[in-house]
Each structure stands twice: as structure tokens, then as C-alpha cells.
Amino acid sequence: MNTLTMTFLNKEGKNFSLRLPKVRTDITEVEVEELMTTILTKNLLFVGEKELESIESASIN
């Protein structure tokens, strides 16, 4: 099973990891980057100090 782990830095300076199980085996680096950018720029998850500020890393395990 392929799990995509995306790690962001929030405004508190802490890491936040989001894991998506069962991603496509042929997902590309560009697709992952676009997904992470969308999550970040549209502020889809948090507000205030926990708001995501930057992309740290991504990996598939």
C-alpha cells in the first residue's frame, strides 16, 4: 500500500504531516507539488497560528 506523507510547517514553526493512504502508484512529483500548493494557498485545513505556512517535504512509503 502506498501512503503519501506531506509535511508542512505551520505559523507556530511546528511540522504538520498529512498522510493519504492508497495513492496511485504512478503519481508524479509535479502532482504532489500541485496538491500541496493547493492545500497551502487555499488554507484548507487550519486558521490562526496553526495555519500552514510552507511546504517542507513529501514522501511515498
Keywords for this entry:
61 residues
Task: Write down how many β-strands occur, each being a DSSP E stretch of 2 or more residues.
Answer: 3
How many angstroms does the end-to-end distance come to?
A: 8 Å
| Unreliable segments of 5+ consecutive residues | none
Q: List the domain count as a whole number.
A: 1
Helix and strand sequence: EEHE
**Helical run tally:** 1
Describe the structure.
It contains one helix and three strands. With 61 residues, it is an alpha+beta fold. It has one domain (3-56). The longest helix has 13 residues, at 29-41. The radius of gyration is 12 Å and the shape is elongated. The model has no long low-confidence stretch (mean pLDDT 95).
Give the helix/strand layout.
Blueprint lengths: L2 E8 L4 E7 L7 H13 L10 E9 L1
Antiparallel strand pairs: 1-2, 1-3
Summarize the structure.
The protein is built from one helix and three strands; from the N terminus they run ββαβ. With 61 residues, the chain is an alpha+beta fold.
